[in-house]
Amino acid sequence: MTHLDSELNRLKAEIEEMGRLVQHQLRKSVQAFVDMRKDLAREVLFQERRINATELKIDRDCENIMALFNPVAIDLRLVFAAFKINSHLERMGDHSKGIASYALDLRQPLPEKLLSQLDLFSAIDQLENMIESNIMAFRDGDSAKARKIFQSDAQLDSWNRKAMQSVIDFFPEHPDLVPELLNVASAVRKLERIGDLNKNIAEEIIFYVEAHVLKHEKEKI
Fold first, then answer.
1. Per-residue exposure over 135-166, b if at least 16 CB sit within 10 Å of its own CB, e if not
2. CA quadruple 109, 114, 115, 120: dihedral positive or negative?
3. How many alpha carbons fall within 13 Å on the CB side of residue 135?
4. Which of 26, 91, 137, 217 would bridge with 142, disulfide CB 3.0–4.6 Å?
5. What is the pLDDT of residues 55-72, one digit of tens each?
6. What is the phi/psi pair of residue 105, to 5°?
7. Treating both helix axes as pointing N-terminal to C-terminal, what angle do 3-35 and 38-69 enclose, rounded to 10 degrees?
8. What is the topology classification, in CATH, of domain 3-220?
């Protein structure tokens, strides 16, 4: 194994670590929001510093690999993909932080009926699986696994539409909960956006493995 190979493997391991951090942040932020756990919400906000520090380290490592080894072909695409995946993961962390912030703003617990309709933790399970699949696809160079993310994102989009409608239907009968319901709608939107970011990561993995750029293809069609 060459020195470059060792550095690329280390880069993959760092992306995996970043993905695990985001998974934990995501679940904790929603748990804090659902259970009105302000202590857990503050923990998410504090942990965001670690995600930001990890992002900066990965960026520096990508830059160092480019400068020291001048990678070409698939190795070059791997570094480019890692750089962008790192950014997408950091933005997922930002969205998780946002959900935790909503938990701190809650004045009263969310209605059980609404939480049951939203089924937030089913969305979290799906998002965690998407992150996990992307981590493994990047590690193994598996573009077929990455492509499965698109179907998961479509399912998450469907959940998002139903969840938003549930929130809208709740407004007329609960005028006393308007601030809380607005935060719920914002949290649902952030979860949907995390799904979009997972789809972006899948596109980067396909680019890395196949040298095939998917970005904007739909718009061109």
1. bebbeeeebebbebbeebbeebeebbeebbeb
2. negative
3. 18
4. 137
5. 999 999 999 999 999 999
6. -85, -15
7. 160
8. Methane Monooxygenase Hydroxylase; Chain G, domain 1 (1.20.58)
